[in-house]
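TA notes, week 10

Several of you asked for a full example with nothing omitted. So below is the full record: structure tokens for the whole chain, then the designed sequence directly under it. When grading your own attempts, check the secondary structure regions first.
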């Protein structure tokens, strides 16, 4: 699917599925072509005794990543959730400020 968006004064939210293409017009009038090439998410630490069984006070930390192709250049973003690394500045690449907020893997997780 092709998604077309233009820069605004504030954040421009975009949701892409694997293989989708974003045609994003910058404030300068230039257009960037962004394709979602891959994503993953993994738990790397948990205090749960059984995965996916809620336990009061438990903490689960995970990482997720996406690989984008921006005008033919590969860019990989990795983010951690529920750690001190959860707070970060958006990444800048080819005139875009990119902030990944979630990952949906091919298995639907």
């Amino acid at each position: 699917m092709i998604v077309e968006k233009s820069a605004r004064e504030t954040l421009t939210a975009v949701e892409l599925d694997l293989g989708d293409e974003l045609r994003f017009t910058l404030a300068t009038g230039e257009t960037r072509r962004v394709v979602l090439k891959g994503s993953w998410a993994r738990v790397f630490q948990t205090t749960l005794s059984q995965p996916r069984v809620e336990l009061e006070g438990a903490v689960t930390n995970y990482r997720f990543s996406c690989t984008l192709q921006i005008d033919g250049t590969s860019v990989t973003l990795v983010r951690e959730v529920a750690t001190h690394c959860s707070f970060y500045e958006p990444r800048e690449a080819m005139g875009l400020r990119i902030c990944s907020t979630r990952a949906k893997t091919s298995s639907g997780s």
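The longest strand covers residues 31-46. Use that as a sanity check on your answer.
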